[in-house]
UniProtKB/TrEMBL annotation:
Listed PANTHER family: 3-OXOACYL-[ACYL-CARRIER-PROTEIN] REDUCTASE FABG, SHORT-CHAIN DEHYDROGENASES/REDUCTASES FAMILY MEMBER
Name of this protein: NAD(P)-dependent dehydrogenase, short-chain alcohol dehydrogenase family
Organism: Flexilinea flocculi
GO MF term set: oxidoreductase activity, acting on the CH-OH group of donors, NAD or NADP as acceptor
Keyword Oxidoreductase: yes
GO biological process, any: carbohydrate metabolic process
Domain of life according to the entry: Bacteria
InterPro entries per UniProt: NAD(P)-bd_dom_sf (IPR036291), Sc_DH/Rdtase_CS (IPR020904), SDR_fam (IPR002347)
Record keywords: Oxidoreductase
Similarity-based family: Belongs to the short-chain dehydrogenases/reductases (SDR) family.
Amino acid sequence: MIPDFCIKDKVIVVTGGAGAICGTMCRTFGEAGAKVAVLDLRQDFAQKIADEITAKGGQAIGVACNVLEKDSIETAAEIVMQQWDRVDVLINGAGGNKPQATTNSQVSFFDLPADAIQWVFNLNCLGAMLPSQVFGKIMAKTGEGCILNISSMNAFRPLTRIPAYSAAKAGINNFTQWLAVDMAKNVSPKIRVNAIAPGFFIGNQNRDLLIDKETGELTERGKSIINLTPMNRFGEFEELMGATLFLISPASEFITGVVIPVDGGFSSFSGV
Ligand code: NAD
C-alpha cells in the first residue's frame, strides 16, 4: 500500500497563520487543495495570506483570533464552522519571544520583569492549550482530527538567554504527549496530537539575535548555531513542510505524541 499524504479538501486551521513559518504552511496547504483558515492576532495580515491563496485558485479565509482569549478563539471557530462546517487539522503556530524576556550583558536573569516572562510563557504554552480545547472539542464531534504543535530546539536542551521561551517550549513537548494520550484514550483514537521542532530558521523573532543589523554578518550566537548544525546552514521555511504534511495526513495514522525535529542534525550533535 502506498502511504496517503493527501490533504485535499481537509479544513486546516492555522493559528499565527500570518507569521513567517505558518504563512508558508498556509500557502502550501492552499496549493495542496486544503481549505485553509488563517487565524492571527493581525487580521489584516491573515487576510492578505488568504487572498494570496484564493488568487491562486485555492480556498482560504483570514480570521482575527487571539490565542490567549477563549472568547476570541470561539468566535474564530464559529466563523470557520459557518464556512466549512468541520475542522480536520489544527496547527498551533502562534508563538514567539520578546526582547524584554531575553537576558543580555546588562540584564541578568534576576532582572527579567515578571510580566515579560509571563507574556512569553502564556503565548507559547497557554496559546496552544486554549485553541486545542476549542478546536479539539469540534474534532471530538466527528471523532477524527489532527493537532500539530510547533515546538523548538529549546524544548530538548535550553538555549542561553531565553528562559521563558525555553521552558514554555519544553512544556509544549510535554503537552503534546499528554494531549495525545488523553485524546486517544478518552475522546477518540482517531484524534492525533504531534509536534514539529524546527531548528534554526531566520524569522522576525530571531533575526536580530542571529544576524548583526549593521554588518549583515552572523552574530557570535549565529556562528555557534551554524557550528553546531551538522548540515552547516540555517533551514528554509519550506523544509518544514515534509514533516508537517506527514504528521497531518493519513500517512501517519498510527503516530501520536511525537515531536519531530527538523533541524539539520542540531539536536543530535553533542558539539564534539
Ligand atoms: P512569527 O513571529 O513570524 O509569527 C508568529 C505569528 O503569531 C505572527 O503572525 C503573530 O501576529 C501571531 N501571534 C502573536 N501573538 C498572537 C496571539 N496572541 N494570537 C494569535 N496570533 C498571535 O514567528 P515564526 O518564526 O513564524 O514562528 C512560528 C512558530 O514557530 C512559533 O511558535 C515559534 O516559536 C516557532 N519556532 C520558530 C523558529 C524560527 O526559527 N523562526 C524556530 C523554532 C520554533
